[in-house]
Design goal:
Shape of chain B: globular
Number of domains of chain B: 2
Oligomer: heterodimer
Radius of gyration of chain A: 23 Å
Mean pLDDT of chain B: 88
Structural class of chain A: mainly alpha
Shape of chain A: globular
Structural class of chain B: alpha/beta
CATH architecture of the largest domain in chain B: 3-Layer(aba) Sandwich
Radius of gyration of chain B: 19 Å
Largest sheet of chain A: none
Strand order of the largest sheet of chain B: 6-7-8-3-9-10
Number of strands of chain B: 10
Largest sheet of chain B: 6 strands, mixed
CATH superfamily of chain A: MetI-like
Helix content of chain A: over 70%
CATH topology of chain A: MetI-like fold
Number of helices of chain A: 10
Strand content of chain B: 15-25%
Number of strands of chain A: 0
Low-confidence stretches of chain B: 265-274
Order of helices and strands of chain A: HHHHHHHHHH
Distance between the termini of chain A: 30 Å
């Protein structure tokens, strides 16, 4: 191995798969070999079996759907509010001065700590779950978008000014298109965080969703189900990440060309 | 009548914290006639780019004023087109959309816009690259697009800030011929900043030499080489005489500028006691 020397595509895929194989092997060895008690950790075969039962007999697909709905709902609401605010903050310094101190403070407020309060305010319904995700995402998006927009290359702005662009034109036809790929990247990142908030929200006072299934399984000591639930979350995250990357490549070919 | 009038314009950058302010430009007066091609020649850091930015309206003079067609300059505007040394094409727009940018801001109808754009793309020799993104172009092609973008807007004066500074020698020579060819046909008023003596002579009808910082005008040299100029003129006796003269003028300033950077003097004004 030499520093920074690239490897072939097939080698990359093989190495990536290899780790999954090793991980599974170690897990199977520890559980099927009897080194770890079944009570604490289910073996891979039991996990798959229980997962299949969950999907076919216990309506787990509905739980998955409702969790995705909550994440997407809260995340889209947060993005609808945060992206415009972030763009305005990045472009106009008075707006930044107005919002920035509060947003910087608010982003350190842990979304999960709001859950008891949100239950008081919004009950145990969907609104409460969506609000947890909203609070967890909105401040992060605002700040990161503001930084991205304010760091657009000055010389591009100046070039636009010498071409006759005025305030609106600079915002709409320089600042926004220049930072669009980075904004998409920010959304991809924050969507990943939103997944952790939804599970936390579902662990407390919920009657559906992947998180609720996990807490139910804990009561039944069904570790296979818990692990299956966690793996499902990982797979969904991977898929959404892939979709985002694919979309960004399609939308912003100029940033990669 | 003078197209551009620069009246005792100076620029002092305020010092950061308690350091001494930097005098970038001593009061400078300069006039550029309609259809003239003036090059400003000076060593690095002499304030020539600062002067150009003041004319463009991207910066404000500390004293003095700048008039274009008799109107004082206040802020950047489409009447003063600019080509920068750094590559400033909008990376999300194709070559054609970059060239169309100023026309779009002006609200020129699409059909008229397309006609102007294709005309300029042809003049700078980029036919076939209309739908390329800037990242797919070489440095020389990017600067050609930048020139087309500035000129498609039909500015009253074209400002160029060392536009070929980052290009290799061969490309630079070709770009000079391209720009000169355009000027010989269009007779735009041009103000061109460079530190390259040959470039300054080859392009200009007048070379303005600036001193080391703080920048002042040290000399003005009329270049009476005939037009159209061919690149072979660079080897003529007349050209060599001009080059020798300007080399002398600029060398003294370069030496001065370099001396200010030696350790004995470096940092003196800009590092206050902590």
């Amino acid at each position: 191995m030499k520093p920074l020397v690239p490897i072939s595509n097939s080698a990359r895929v093989a190495l990536g798969v290899l780790f999954f194989v090793l991980f599974l092997t170690a897990w199977a060895y520890a559980t099927l070999g009897g080194y770890v008690s079944k009570t604490f950790l289910a073996d891979p075969l039991t996990m798959v079996e229980e997962g299949w039962l969950l999907l076919t007999k216990h309506g787990f697909l509905f739980d998955i759907a409702i969790t995705i709905w909550r994440v997407v709902g809260g995340f889209v609401l947060a993005a609808l509010v945060a992206v415009p605010v972030g763009i305005l903050m990045g472009a106009y310094k008075p707006i930044e001065a107005f919002f920035e101190p509060f947003v910087s403070f608010a982003r350190y407020l842990p979304a999960s700590a709001f859950i008891p309060l949100l239950i008081l305010w919004a009950g145990l319904g969907e609104l409460q779950k969506v609000l947890v995700i909203f609070i967890g995402s909105v401040f992060q998006i605002v700040l990161m978008v503001a930084v991205t927009v304010s760091s657009v290359r000055r010389d591009l702005v100046e070039a636009a000014m010498t071409l006759g662009a005025r305030d609106r034109g600079i915002l709409a036809r320089v600042l926004i298109p220049a930072s669009a790929p980075d904004i998409a990247e920010i959304l991809r990142l924050v969507l990943g965080w939103a997944w952790t908030y939804v599970i936390v929200a579902e662990l407390i006072g919920s009657s559906s969703g992947i998180g609720h299934m996990i807490i139910d399984s804990q009561a039944l000591l069904a570790t296979g189900q818990i692990i299956f639930g966690i793996i499902v979350i990982g797979v969904i995250g991977l898929i959404s990440d892939f979709l985002f990357k694919w979309g960004n490549r399609r939308l912003f070919p100029w940033s990669l060309a | 009548m003078s197209k551009l009038v620069i009246e005792s314009v100076s620029r002092i950058f305020p010092g950061l914290r308690r350091s001494v302010p930097t005098k970038a430009l001593e009061p400078i007066s300069l006039e550029v006639a309609e259809n003239d091609f003036v090059t400003i020649l000076g060593p690095s850091g002499c304030g020539k780019s600062t002067l150009l930015r003041l004319v463009a309206g991207l910066d404000r003079p500390t004293t003095g004023r700048i008039l274009l067609d008799g109107t004082p300059v206040a802020g950047a505007g489409p009447d003063r087109g600019m080509v920068f040394q750094s590559y400033t094409l909008f990376p999300w727009l194709t070559v054609a959309d970059n060239v169309a940018f100023g026309l779009r801001e002006k609200g020129v109808p699409a059909a008229r816009r397309a006609a102007v754009v294709s005309e300029w793309i042809e003049r700078v020799g980029l036919v076939g690259f209309e739908h390329h993104y800037p990242k797919q172009l070489s440095g020389g092609m990017q600067q050609r697009t930048a020139i087309a973008r500035a000129l498609a807007n039909d500015p009253a004066i074209l400002l160029l800030d060392e536009p070929f500074g980052a290009l290799d020698n061969q490309t630079r020579a070709l770009m000079q011929e391209l720009l000169l060819g355009i000027w010989e046909r269009e007779r735009k008023t041009v103000l061109f900043v460079t530190h390259d003596i040959e470039e300054a002579i080859f392009l200009a009808s007048r070379v303005v030499v600036m001193t080391a910082r703080p920048g002042r005008i040290k000399a003005e040299v009329l270049i009476e080489l005939p037009h159209p100029r061919h690149y072979t003129i660079k080897t003529s006796a007349e050209f060599s005489t001009l080059k020798a003269r300007l080399t002398e003028e600029i060398r003294v300033e370069a030496v001065l500028a370099a001396e200010r950077l030696t350790p004995a003097h470096a940092g003196r004004p800009s590092s206050p006691p902590a």
